[in-house]
Write a structure and sequence with these properties.
Elements lengths: L10 E5 L8 H14 L3 E6 L2 H4 L22 H8 L3 H13 L3 E6 L2 H9 L5 E3 L7 H8 L5 E4 L5 H14 L4 E6 L14 H9 L2 E6 L5 H8 L4 E5 L17 H18 L19 E4 L14 E4 L10 H4 L25
Parallel strand pairs: 1-2, 1-8, 2-3, 4-5, 5-6, 6-7, 7-8
Antiparallel strand pairs: 9-10
């Protein structure tokens, strides 16, 4: 199943994540603001704290990654705070669609897939931490719908397992996203050159799930062939939100959309010899011109011919051919040199 809604390149997704702070009105306001930036899609995350982890308080269930935005948080509490209530999905999807956006989500368990199927989402996203959850990937693959899968920390063999499973089940369109699973991610950890290897290794479209701050990684990825760009979105970073530190405010997202579109447009096709728009300017290349008034019988040398613009005379490559040749007619300064002016014409 192909989804024409993803035909624009790059297909730019605003990820709401938990930046709505459990406020439905704020979630709607975020969707409205995102639509005004020119993004193509809004993405939610579909899970509950209970579907993500256990309500356990020991050290194993605490975020220990140093430098993480959530260092020291209990996993259950974090997911409870960041989750999007299931009853919000339908009205938020409907609102996004009314504004011309594609609306979909990342399911984090099979029940979430079943729920999203009941809402007839057009696309599925597999989060990078879930790429090794093969039962989840199988459930999504069986929907037959396009799948966007973040690769994150996955090894090449783990990506191969996921892609092979999808292809064994059906003909879902697959887009693999390069993703650095730190929050925020350092620009130097992006390793975007991997995009071309992803594309050639797995014969699919590629893109970027971007956790860096700013637009540089997204624009670079677009120039490297990314067909999907996903970026977290927030109305106001200073107001907080679980992902606010690496999310784009509306003005920044507008700049990202505009610049990525320009980068994509600049790629074009393999072209030599100039575009149609350049043809009129070929006249202003150089050619050989008569630089002094001359009489028939005069010999051509560097005192009476010159390589100049425009290009209406003999090409500069014939310079050595015409030096020492004898004119067979009178010529005036400013005439373009032609073979017919020269004795012993060369062609």
């Amino acid at each position: 199943m192909k989804n024409q809604n993803m035909s624009k390149s790059p297909f730019i997704i605003a990820e709401l994540s938990g930046n709505h702070n459990q406020d439905f009105a704020l979630a709607k306001a975020m969707i409205e603001a995102a639509a005004k930036t020119g993004v193509d899609a809004i993405k939610l995350q579909t899970y509950t704290a209970d579907s993500m982890t256990l309500n356990v308080r020991n050290e194993e269930f605490m975020v220990s990654a140093q430098g993480s935005l959530w260092e020291g948080d209990n996993l259950y509490d974090l997911y409870a705070k960041a989750s999007t209530p299931y009853e919000w999905h339908q009205p938020l999807f409907d609102y996004a669609k009314s504004l011309g956006l594609v609306a979909f989500s990342s399911p984090f368990d099979i029940n979430a897939v079943n729920f999203l199927e009941s809402l007839d989402v057009p696309i599925y996203k597999i989060a990078s931490f879930e790429l090794t959850d093969l039962p989840l990937i199988e459930a999504v693959a069986r929907t037959g719908k396009p799948m966007i899968m973040s690769t994150g920390m996955a090894t090449k063999s783990e990506i191969e397992e996921a892609v092979s499973l999808v292809r064994l089940i059906g003909d879902n369109e697959i887009t693999l996203l390069k993703c650095t699973s730190t929050y925020p991610a350092k620009i130097e950890d992006s390793n975007l050159i991997t995009l071309s290897d992803l594309a050639s290794s797995f014969h699919c479209k590629v893109g970027l799930s971007d956790h860096t701050q700013g637009i540089a990684a997204a624009v670079t990825a677009t120039a490297l062939g990314a067909s999907v760009i996903e970026k977290h979105f927030v109305l106001d970073r200073s107001a907080g939100g679980v992902d606010a530190a690496f999310s784009m405010e509306p003005d920044e997202m507008s700049l990202l959309v505009e610049t990525c579109r320009q980068a994509s447009s600049s790629l074009g096709a393999v072209t030599y010899g100039g575009t149609a728009a350049e043809q009129d300017f070929k006249k202003y290349r150089r050619s050989i011109y008569i630089a002094q008034d001359c009489k028939a019988g005069d010999q051509l040398d560097s005192s009476n011919i010159q390589i100049i613009r425009p290009s209406l005379g003999l090409a500069p490559k014939h310079w050595s051919d015409v030096l020492g040749q004898t004119l067979v007619q009178d010529v005036k300064k400013g005439e373009a040199l032609t073979w017919s002016m020269i004795q012993n014409q060369n062609g």
